[in-house]
Design a protein that fits this description.
single chain, alpha/beta, Rossmann fold, seven-stranded parallel sheet, 7 strands, about 45% helix, globular, binds nicotinamide-adenine-dinucleotide
């Protein structure tokens, strides 16, 4: 029996690597998908792929920082599929690096608007539909960088820490209505986004993977497996928690040199 048979899931950032991977896995598990993304082209690509594999998916252009667009996306999903049971928030903007003096106020605000307020808005407009479906699950994508800081990335790291605490309170508020809410904190995952930062897959693995507990970076499919678990009844007593999918990154305080020698 597939894990998500009969579910209807909205995935924000669903055109991206991790969001797209989650959407594809959910489709394999029997869910219908509304792929929401700032880039309609990227969302369409994921939706087309799911449909060509025999699944059900639509693509919706949404800037999650815009309340009316989030509300319209929720409505469009219900019109198309009749209900919503599941929400995954995977969208995030790319923020320029720099310490507090160097970060432009506009970049700071954009990080908060997309990574944090966007999650709030998607929850705000999707939750009434999950309630109407008599329960469901929300999976918010945080980051291992919400657990520990990185130089020059206060905007990103702070929004990811905020996502975790927001989700705990969400779980408390909606638990009585049979709506579970959890976060996933991915560690170093191989995606285009990380390739843009680290140049090549080899360099990404050298910088982010080799010094980690499992000695490698993770895959989109490994994050998607965790999301499928949290969205499904297999996680029926799991709410208000954060699932680190980081290959042990957060537990390992050493450096690659200590572990492997120079
Ligand atoms: N890649 C990693 O190693 C890693 C590690 C930890 C956490 N994460 C988190 O996982 C999530 C997905 O990351 P990814 O690596 O797949 O990146 P990605 O850039 O491929 O995906 C992010 C998606 O969000 C979309 N987006 C950006 N702004 C938006 C907006 N205003 N409204 C709607 N959509 C918008 C982008 O178009 C993109 O498709 C992010 O929340 C990221 O912070 C990634």
């Amino acid at each position: 029996m597939a894990l998500l048979t009969g579910r209807v899931a909205v995935v924000s950032g669903g055109g991206g690597d991790i969001g797209g991977g989650i959407a594809r896995r959910f489709a394999k598990e029997g869910a219908a998908l509304a792929i929401c993304d700032l880039s309609l082209e990227k969302a369409e690509k994921v939706a087309r792929q799911i449909r060509s594999d025999g699944g059900r998916a639509i693509a919706i252009a949404v800037d999650v920082s815009q309340a009316e667009q989030c509300e319209a996306a929720a409505m469009q999903t219900v019109v198309e599929f009749g209900k919503i049971t599941t929400l995954v928030n995977a969208s995030a903007t790319v923020s320029p690096d720099g310490n507090v003096e160097k970060i432009a106020l506009a970049d700071w605000r954009r990080a908060l608007d997309v990574n944090f307020t966007g999650m709030f808005l998607m929850c705000k407009y999707v939750l009434p539909h999950i309630r109407e479906a008599r329960g469901g699950a929300i999976v918010n994508i945080a980051s291992s960088h919400g657990h520990f800081g990185l130089p020059g990335r206060s905007a990103y790291c702070s929004t990811k820490a905020a996502v975790m605490h927001f989700t705990r309170v969400l779980a408390i508020d909606y638990g009585p209505e049979n709506i579970r809410a959890n976060t996933i904190s991915p560690g170093p995952i191989d995606t285009e986004r990380s390739l843009r930062r680290y140049g090549t897959r080899e360099n990404s693995n050298r910088v982010r993977g080799v010094g980690q507990v499992l000695g490698r970076t993770g895959t989109v499919e490994e994050v998607a497996a965790a999301a499928a678990f949290l969205a499904s009844d297999e996680a029926s007593f799991v709410t208000g928690t954060d699932l680190l999918v980081d290959g042990g990154q957060t537990s390992f305080k050493g450096s690659s040199l200590e572990r492997y020698g120079s």
